[in-house]
Amino acid sequence: MSSETFPIASNLSVSCSMAGNTQMTANQLQWFDEGTIILKAFNSEKVRQVIHYRPFPDDGYPRRCLLERNKAFLTGVLGLWGYESLDNLSIEQMVDKIFLHSITPFQPVLWHWSPTLVCSQDAQAIAEAIESESHYHFKTIPFAEIVRVSLGYETDAVKWFSHQHTLLSKTVTEHLRHHPEEVSLYEGVEKV
C-alpha cells in the first residue's frame, strides 16, 4: 500500500467533523470512508463493530457521528445488549452506553519476571521464562488495538506492551551492571 498521505477530504458528505487537520494514508482513508458509511447506515451490528475497531485517527469521531443519530436507531444498537426501555435516556447517555459496551478497556498488567527472581543458572530456562512473560502480556492486548496499530494509529495497549519490554531491557542491564558474573549467562539467554 502507498504510504503517501492525504488530507481528510473524503468523497462522502460527512457532517460529523474530524478534529484538527488530520493527514491519512490511502489505506487509512479507505478505512475511514468505509467506517463512515457504516456509521451513517442502519445496521446496528456493523455500527457496533466499527465503534469497537475504531478505524479513525480521531477516537471522538464515531461518538460525534452517533450523537447525530436519532433515538430509535440508538435504541436498536443498544438492543444488541438486551436493553429495552430507554425512553428516559438522552441521546448522549445512549451513545455513552454504546461505547461502554463496544470498546474493551485496556487493563495494564505489570511485568512480573525479574533477574533478581531467577533461581536457575540455565540460559534456556531463563529465556523460556522471559518468553512466557512476554506472551502473557501480548495476550492482554485486545485484538481491536492490534487492528488500530496495523492502520498506523497508536494505542495505549501496544505502547504499554512496548514500554514493558523497554523496562525489561533496562532492568536486565542494571542487574548485569551490579552482577557482572552473570553476563555470560545472559549472553546465553540472548542466543536461545
Describe this structure in words.
The structure is a single chain. By secondary structure, this protein is mainly α. It folds into two domains: 5-102, no CATH class; 115-191, no CATH class. Helices cover 56% and strands 3% of the residues. The protein is built from nine helices and two strands, in the order E-E-H-H-H-H-H-H-H-H-H. The chain has a two-stranded antiparallel sheet. Helix 2 crosses helix 4 (71-78), helix 4 runs parallel beside helix 5 and helix 6 (123-138) crosses helix 9 (183-191). The longest helix has 23 residues, at 156-178.
- What is the number of E strands? 2
Helix % is: 55-70%
Structural class: mainly alpha
Order of helices and strands: EEHHHHHHHHH
How are the strands of the largest sheet arranged?
1-2
- How would you state the average pLDDT, rounded? 86
Radius of gyration: 23 Å
- Unreliable spans are 5-15
Largest sheet: 2 strands, antiparallel
Shape: elongated
Number of helices: 9
- Kindly give the count of domains: 2
